[in-house]
């Protein structure tokens, strides 16, 4: 069994991104990697508080919107990058939620300050058909592009947390970067205009936290064993709520509580494009236990049912990227780790 990915490789800077419509289970995988790999710095990129990443750790559920789910490792520094739009209320609430130690958390001084006005504008201006989370992200991103946004440096409540994430991340040896949303929600490559307000592929996530493309070692793309989408837009193979409920695939949004739309299938062409543009070197497949009952809580590949193993092989052959992490339950520890495949 692999002791510690970083110990084997020495110095690593890894990015984790979503390969579908968000809600792939990034939070759970990040929390596993945070505990297992013990990174000095864990930084979050992506849009902002529209993304809810959920961790279930030691019997408690944490829906994280501004801070990385890597907080479960108490030794890691938890940072939010310059590319993220930051709602101070959400940020401060989450600092409290994870123990209230201001020395642990930081936000890049260049990040955009998401204000109450942005939240109001999200409700009044963002076209309803998109099904925005109305958390103010789109208007904050627009103001940044229009060069009229304030940065978090001007927000008094965030003063104690301001830092230079670029410096911290480039000086650290072992870094884990948490992307948000999913490839199909990218404003460039997703189902435009039914998408979020930014690109969220690995290159953009790297830029969000201030790390150059040549300094990234592994790009782990997370995908769920089936497909869900919350909000408007095209969605292949959509089932109705009853059908999804029957097989345990009916989910509800972490941020908005809205029911997610469900397809039992994987959308192979989308996943292949996502793997290409993200330059995925590894895949993490979550909720294999929901897709194939009988695999709940399995922590060794050999213990998976034949059907589940075949499914993993199918993913590897169709997408052409090794599946190194497999989620078999909501708990951080319900994870099969096969990263020795790529070492
Ligand atoms: P907005 O980014 O909040 O404006 O939302 C635009 C679209 O992206 C809506 O369909 C949202 O449901 C979706 N979206 C944004 N962020 C996430 C996420 O983290 N997970 C899932 N869907 C998201
Ligand atoms: Mg989510």
Outline the structure in words.
With 343 residues, the protein is of the alpha/beta class. It has one domain: Adenylosuccinate Synthetase, subunit A, domain 1 (Adenylosuccinate Synthetase, Chain A, domain 1), CATH 3.40.440.10. Helices cover 28% and strands 19% of the residues. It has 11 helices and 17 strands. The strands form 4 sheets. The protein has a 10-stranded mixed β-sheet, sandwiched between helices. The chain has a 3-stranded antiparallel β-sheet with strand order 12-14-13. Strands 3-4 form a two-stranded antiparallel sheet. A hairpin with a 2-residue loop joins β3 (53-57) and β4. α4 (116-125) packs across α5 (137-145). The radius of gyration is 19 Å and the shape is globular.
Order of H and E elements: HEHEEEEEHEEHHEHEHEEEHEHEHHEE
Number of strand elements: 17
In CATH terms, the superfamily is Adenylosuccinate Synthetase, subunit A, domain 1
CATH architecture: 3-Layer(aba) Sandwich
Which molecules are bound in this entry? inosinic acid, magnesium ion
Helix vs. strand class: alpha/beta
Q: Tell me the CATH topology.
A: Adenylosuccinate Synthetase, Chain A, domain 1
- Going across the major beta sheet, what is the strand order? 9-7-5-2-10-1-11-15-16-17
3D shape: globular
Helix content: 25-40%
Residue fraction in strands: 15-25%
User: Mind telling me the C-alpha Rg?
Assistant: 19 Å
CATH top level is: Alpha Beta
Ranges where pLDDT stays below 50 over 5 or more residues in a row are none
Query: What is the makeup of the main sheet?
Result: 10 strands, mixed
Distance between the termini: 12 Å
Count of helical regions: 11
In quaternary terms, these chains amount to single chain
Mean pLDDT: 95
Number of domains: 1
